[in-house]
Amino acid sequence: MPQFDVMTFGETMLRLSPPSHGRIENTDTLDCRTGGSESNTAVALARLGRRVTWWSRLPNNSLGRKVSGQLNRWGVDTSKVIWSDEGRLGLYFVEFGSPPRPTIVTYDRTNSAVSYLKPDDVDWAILSDAAHLHVTGITCALSPNCAETVLHAVKEAKSRGLSVSFDVNYRSKLWSAKRCRDTISRMMPYVDLLFCPMGDADNVFGIKDSPGLVARRLQGQLRVDTVVVTGSSDHVAAVQGRDLLRSDIVRCREVDRVGAGDAGDAGIIHGFLDGDLQKGLKYGSAMAALKQTIPGDELIVSKAEIEAVVNGGSSGIQR
Amino acid sequence: MPQFDVMTFGETMLRLSPPSHGRIENTDTLDCRTGGSESNTAVALARLGRRVTWWSRLPNNSLGRKVSGQLNRWGVDTSKVIWSDEGRLGLYFVEFGSPPRPTIVTYDRTNSAVSYLKPDDVDWAILSDAAHLHVTGITCALSPNCAETVLHAVKEAKSRGLSVSFDVNYRSKLWSAKRCRDTISRMMPYVDLLFCPMGDADNVFGIKDSPGLVARRLQGQLRVDTVVVTGSSDHVAAVQGRDLLRSDIVRCREVDRVGAGDAGDAGIIHGFLDGDLQKGLKYGSAMAALKQTIPGDELIVSKAEIEAVVNGGSSGIQR
Amino acid sequence: MPQFDVMTFGETMLRLSPPSHGRIENTDTLDCRTGGSESNTAVALARLGRRVTWWSRLPNNSLGRKVSGQLNRWGVDTSKVIWSDEGRLGLYFVEFGSPPRPTIVTYDRTNSAVSYLKPDDVDWAILSDAAHLHVTGITCALSPNCAETVLHAVKEAKSRGLSVSFDVNYRSKLWSAKRCRDTISRMMPYVDLLFCPMGDADNVFGIKDSPGLVARRLQGQLRVDTVVVTGSSDHVAAVQGRDLLRSDIVRCREVDRVGAGDAGDAGIIHGFLDGDLQKGLKYGSAMAALKQTIPGDELIVSKAEIEAVVNGGSSGIQR
Amino acid sequence: MPQFDVMTFGETMLRLSPPSHGRIENTDTLDCRTGGSESNTAVALARLGRRVTWWSRLPNNSLGRKVSGQLNRWGVDTSKVIWSDEGRLGLYFVEFGSPPRPTIVTYDRTNSAVSYLKPDDVDWAILSDAAHLHVTGITCALSPNCAETVLHAVKEAKSRGLSVSFDVNYRSKLWSAKRCRDTISRMMPYVDLLFCPMGDADNVFGIKDSPGLVARRLQGQLRVDTVVVTGSSDHVAAVQGRDLLRSDIVRCREVDRVGAGDAGDAGIIHGFLDGDLQKGLKYGSAMAALKQTIPGDELIVSKAEIEAVVNGGSSGIQR
Amino acid sequence: MPQFDVMTFGETMLRLSPPSHGRIENTDTLDCRTGGSESNTAVALARLGRRVTWWSRLPNNSLGRKVSGQLNRWGVDTSKVIWSDEGRLGLYFVEFGSPPRPTIVTYDRTNSAVSYLKPDDVDWAILSDAAHLHVTGITCALSPNCAETVLHAVKEAKSRGLSVSFDVNYRSKLWSAKRCRDTISRMMPYVDLLFCPMGDADNVFGIKDSPGLVARRLQGQLRVDTVVVTGSSDHVAAVQGRDLLRSDIVRCREVDRVGAGDAGDAGIIHGFLDGDLQKGLKYGSAMAALKQTIPGDELIVSKAEIEAVVNGGSSGIQR
Amino acid sequence: MPQFDVMTFGETMLRLSPPSHGRIENTDTLDCRTGGSESNTAVALARLGRRVTWWSRLPNNSLGRKVSGQLNRWGVDTSKVIWSDEGRLGLYFVEFGSPPRPTIVTYDRTNSAVSYLKPDDVDWAILSDAAHLHVTGITCALSPNCAETVLHAVKEAKSRGLSVSFDVNYRSKLWSAKRCRDTISRMMPYVDLLFCPMGDADNVFGIKDSPGLVARRLQGQLRVDTVVVTGSSDHVAAVQGRDLLRSDIVRCREVDRVGAGDAGDAGIIHGFLDGDLQKGLKYGSAMAALKQTIPGDELIVSKAEIEAVVNGGSSGIQR
To answer: Which of A222, C250, E102, E263 can pair with C289 through a Cys bridge, CB separation 3.0 to 4.6 Å?
Structure first.
């Protein structure tokens, strides 16, 4: 049995946000956390008891150590991180909105250490330490080198017998829809489980329909066995081979929505790895809802707390 | 006329909570307040202008002094506190949730100074300084000694002519429903006014019905003249002798729900002492709602602010 | 072309508020910002790209400098401020409520430097530097001298060819409705654009009706060409000559409602100055809603953010 | 035996200070505490176990209640406070310096409720509830009415058999040295124990000498039996009748020096009341030093902590 | 080669401290960190690049997870922790003093999960995963069971070929000097490297002399090959066999002295493991000084920062 | 008379620092201010009443607006800023040390908007709006384009009759000493007033001597009329033509030393512009000391506070 259930890699940034719905212009302090789509998913999987390793290329300074240390803190292995003297740590600013004011993410991630990552920088034998690989479209958007590295990773994973999941995670501030579509399409032959938010299906693939039909059409177009369509305000839908599954969204009162999709992916991967995608959808919905109640990108809950929501537990006071 | 309108005793703890919906695992600071069911009720009564004394057994250190000083600050006398070198100050942690995540209370109150309290430690003559005694089931749950002390207290109070109120306040993390029921039943002959939340009626006494019928059944079963059933999301109901009274819940936007029941008890006791239980129910509903809008266990409002809500005042901006 | 599109004057105070819905009685820290109706409007106009100057009489100390510096920070000129060794800086405390608890403003502004301001203290030639003058009833309420100064200002403005706007902004904690009505009535011959909140129309002028009819009746009674009636929970209405206009309220999730009306005024003045009052109403509704999502009196947003709301943009996450 | 060992009255203000050596101009939060010379001394005496009551005229609002509640919290009775609808609560701002930047107090206390206090507002029978009265020159500086009230108080105290202490506490931002000298001189016939800081002896009485000689000269000039001269960086000196006493200053590392003199006064009064002025000087030196290590005006320590310093205990870590 | 260079075990607590030199009585927030002598040493060793594992018996709740996660964050393995449903997490409060006010540690660690630890609870084979074992007297003080467990550990370690270090770390608030001496003496036959602070030598063993002579006398009395005497304000001294070594204390400006001794131990163990005790003393002095400049028990620095101090680098600004 | 006394340009960054001597690795919040050598000097000059304008190339987003707004707040004009969609806002992190731990600046300023600035981007006619130009070596270090722009600026300034000052401000983390020397040497023919810290004289020009002799040697080598040598712990020295001047360092208790040199430059420029360099040295010493007592890069004091230190005022408490 490999050492880790899941390996993932990508960019994890310092996340800086004005407290209490403030603006960058009128704050004197910033809450300082860490976040990145893949490590968010890694943390959520670790909370479920999965053995998870995340890696990236990190600058060899206090900022890089902060990212690595935080992930260790939440239960994720970082022993495979590539430490570098080149490049900086990516940052992102979040200003939390309130309707009608949107929540605004301002990326400051150009020239990050990981953006220079090339396939040759990686000792691909590390893939053999894991049973499953999870990657996302965001990493592909960072640089052509990064896109090549992701492609290399999914090929290597496939050839070493790992299952592979991929989240489209289109970020319009990082690249164009066309480049996203072209790049991702090359990965699909090696992917077993594809996540695609409703909005990305529309923006990147021009598919606008009910979640189930979006999943079916993506399955046909991209030839991936299992496709999960998230991001609907009503339910999450999946196709797996000929099966069609769905699970209702779990309602929540939002505290911090960033990372909800990543937490949801973790729940779905958890079920997928157990060969029970329906369970995955239920866990994913519960975890995406729970994430939105917690400040920070990461799902800092116990497995028992997740299962209480999966089982429809009360949100009253427990004492 | 005795020096105090109301005397109460019980355990008041340091309350530690991560700010801004954070988790214990991911916070570096804790808000530090004080709280305990009986002292919460004492503070709320003091806010109404009632002369109130609260006592307990407190450790003779800065933590004990903090509790006593805070209660003085909110208007409650603590001159009857028993200072002790034995035992610690109980603590409790609260992680504020947001649906579907519950608010979680983690007690850390074993071996508290008050848990060692025995009837003989108390100079029961102090009861003569008050017109009314209020106690709750929580104190009974702390230790067998404590349960004996509460029993002793209600007997002594009765014999000295005080009226007595008692809130079931069942805490499943502290004791079993059976022990709660058995213990409380012994107190009932000395109680004039019983508070029982809907959930406790079900869990402890196996009674599940509308608030009014729950009150009537508890009245019959426990032979207490006045029974108030709280904790419904619709209305509070009471029986007093043959009368049945009710008052609508006052809707609120929740900031911190801890202590809402205790504040409600205070309003009801206030009316009860004036011989006007209907008024008590109205005050109780207003005060329970107001409490939920204020951070901390205690109801830090003025009497005028309470009466504005009782009279249906606007919640707009006042300037 | 004059140097400034808009000039305004009035009292700007230090604003002190307990964080996180706390009370003055139970807080150990106060958030410390600045705010005043006229400068709030000035800031919002500056955010739209308008060139704006605000002045007042400020104490020549660190508190006065703080007010001036903050307004500079948000884009408002303060070169015309009259610095004084007489009087103090006005303060106000805000305790943010949550239904049923109202938000409470406690003024502490007696004997402020500006309350001693007399018409002779001002070099009225400064009015020639602006195309429009905006004032409010609050300044009139500060002292008889201040009321005279406002009257002098609107007369001077009119005679120098500026257009003039006036917001009734009745504050019952500062003066009586009768004094407000008598004082304001004297200003009206010099006013082109009158703002009147629904509640003020009722309290000050005894007019209670739909927003449109209130506007029409005020127009007739006060003989002002353009009257905008704000403060309805449904829509804002305006009459301009014979025209009747309206714009729906923009719904929001409230973070801090103080200053919403002032931000709305700015949007309306913006349209008014462009000769397009209908646009003004739309901007005003958007800006009043946006203000409520931002901590502090002032509307710290970009013009693009305002226009996104005017155009019905999404309040989701932008990344 | 009277109910209280010591009664004192004066003005207690809200104290607002930027955290971490910040300036008013560049802070967004203010630490919010309470402080006033007489109540500072009252708190320090309560910490020594003395029964103390403080009174003033407080505005009947949340700010006034905050002051009263804080003093209750620290162990001082406030049952004799006169609640008023006239006047405001005085404030003061402190910007903590660091050499060469001085610590700057900016008073904002004009028109405070207590500044309107007249002798007739007080039921002087309350003096009979105490054995000793302590007042200071600051209260005399607030208004001519206040000066009359202090004069009335010391006369009444004398006639009712209380001992009386008085601290010159000259504040050049409140009044002139001449007015201070003239006013204080009228009080001296009724004073048993006079505190005079070195600087005040120079500024108010034109006496510049060693502490002991300053004390002797003040004794001769003002005809007070016991004079304590504080504020030297070396030692505190006292004359009592023909005796001359002194005690070395206790060295400290300063955290917040405000209130050090008031804490010192408390120690000296404590010894004076026990008929042991030498002990008072030792306690005073220890308490003045301790106060400077604690944020806030008030000496929040236990009696045991004071005695450890009196006895020369270590300032290392205790565990 | 074993997996870990150093294994250690003991109790790590939640550490709660009022910010900015405040007192427990007058603070509304507590800084919330973690700390314990053995884990502090573990963190400091990890910072030097040593592979370190720490274990204890932790309660299976969010508080226990917080401790484990924090240590992971700083680079310490916790895979050998024994998770338990019995007992609580120990806490300690620190009030940071300033001369003449001492820093006060208030322990609240009775009935902690680890205090129930017995030798049989441990799978002693884990010792084979490490080359060195470090323990301290504090753990022995927690309970007789704990003392037995420590004794068992050093015996097992010795028999498995590990080197063993032991820090007396006498805590007078936890046990008597006599019990400490008796207990520790039983451990000494299995100890290679003994740390003894000057004060402990005096209090526990009645030895008061220069650091070098204290070390020599302890060596003779306890028959330990290597003895290091810390806690002098001038230098640290060691005897190793017949050698006598010393290293000057590195001067520092104190921010938070808690954990300085533990960090110093780490430096000394580091040298000891390299067979270069003199280097260890230099590293220990540097690390003890550095620790005092960092808030929290743990030495959060890089190895390069430690070596800069060892090499006498400047403490100016680096940019 | 030109509109501004002084123009300056350079890079101003967001400054992020852990509060209370924390480390980046162990903080959850960052204090968020702004700072840059040239704008720091600009703010300090504005505090002296000088009319100052600062410009740069700023990104057209909330971070850029924050920088501009902050400078407006402190009294500096930013109307000449070039707003850009290219490049990011530079950041820098500061971890405040305490001996022996150094204060560490971590720059994160690559690819900033200003680093792309070329001479052709600037409308050099703006120089005619000022009487004096101040620049520093840091801007030259940002990029070759920037170095060209600075060279262009000093030439243009000279040709338009402005006086020019230049601070070497060598930053070893940005470029090599050789590149610094070569670049700066080309600027010197256009410079009237050169600032050179002692360390830079050594590192960049290989001159190590007393401040006065360093100044004389630099004057000879670089052929600048007036050279001021700062950064000695004893005194600042200057040569002006044949004159040699000096002024003692003003001692301070450090709170935040960043920006001290920039504040000192402002004082010296102030005197230089008045034709009184000796006065400049005195002001510079006072201002450099004062800056170190204030959190943040900028000298937020009043002119009166500066003059009090120049005149040797007390650093006691002022009330």
So the answer is: C250
Check CB contact of F28 with chain B, cutoff 8 Å.
yes
Q: Give the one of B20, B99, B173 whose C-beta lies nearest to A252's C-beta.
A: B99
Closest residue, chain B, to A288 (C-alpha)? B100
Q: Which amino acid, one-letter code, is at F77?
A: D
Taking the CA of residue D271 and the nearest CA in chain B, the distance in Å comes to 25
CA distances to B87, B109, B183, B198, B229 from B140, rounded to whole Å, are: 17, 14, 7, 20, 20
Decide: B303 and B48 in contact? Cβ < 8 Å.
yes
Question: Measured between alpha carbons, how far is A40 from A296 in angstroms, rounded to an integer?
Answer: 10
Query: A100 and chain C: CB distance < 8 Å anywhere?
Result: yes
User: Considering CB atoms only, which of D16, D25, D29 is closest to C65?
Assistant: D25
DSSP β-ladder status, D91-95 and D103-108:
antiparallel
Q: Which stretches of chain E drop beneath a pLDDT of 50?
A: none
Indicate yes or no: CB of C293 within 8 angstroms of CB of A104: no
CA–CA gap between residue C113 and residue C199 (Å, rounded): 29
**Nearest residue of B to residue C23 by CA position?**
B300
Residue ranges with strand state E in F98-248 = 103-108, 130-136, 163-167, 193-197, 226-230, 235-240, 243-248
SS (H, E, C) chain E: CCCEEEEEECCCEEEEECCCCCCHHHCCEEEEEEECHHHHHHHHHHHCCCCEEEECEEECCHHHHHHHHHHHHCCCECCCCEEECCCECCEEEEECCECCECEEEEEECCCEHHHHCCHHHCCHHHHHHEEEEEEEHHHHHHCHHHHHHHHHHHHHHHHCCCEEEEECCCCCCCCCHHHHHHHHHHHHHHCCEEEEEHHHHHHHHCCCCCHHHHHHHHHHHHCCCEEEEECCCCEEEEEECCEEEEEECCCCCCCCCCCHHHHHHHHHHHHHHCCCHHHHHHHHHHHHHHHCCCCCCCCCCCHHHHHHHHCCCCCCEEC
Q: Does B28 contact chain F (CB < 8 Å)?
A: yes
CB B135 within 8 A of CB B38: yes
**Among all residues of chain F, which has the CA nearest to that of C69?**
F73
Length of chain B: 319
- pLDDT, one tens digit per residue, over D204-234 is 999 999 999 999 999 999 999 999 999 999 9
Query: Cβ separation of E309 and F100 shorter than 8 Å?
Result: yes
Q: How far apart are CA E260 and CA E41, in angstroms?
A: 9
- Please state, in angstroms and rounded to a whole number, the distance separating the CA atoms of residues A216 and C254: 41
Name the pTM for this structure: 0.97
**Angle between the F211-222 and F198-205 helix axes, to the nearest 10 degrees?**
50
Measure Cα distances from C6 to C2, C41, C106, C148 in Å: 9, 10, 30, 21
Residues of D in contact with E172 (CB under 8 A): 319
Chains that touch B (3 or more CB pairs under 8 A): A, C, D, E, F
ipTM: 0.95
CA–CA min distance D21, chain A (Å): 15
Label residue C107 by pLDDT band (50, 70, 90): very high
| pLDDT tens-place string over residues C182-208 | 999 999 999 999 999 999 999 999 999
CA distance E12 to E81: 11
Q: Where are the alpha helices (DSSP H) in A35-173?
A: 37-47, 62-73, 137-142, 144-159
C176-180 long-range contacts, Cβ below 8 Å, gap at least 24? C177/C203, C177/C204, C179/C141, C180/C137, C180/C140, C180/C141, C180/C204
* A111 vs A109: CA distance, rounded Å: 6
pLDDT digits (tens, 9 = 90+) for F144-184: 999 999 999 999 999 999 999 999 999 999 999 999 999 99
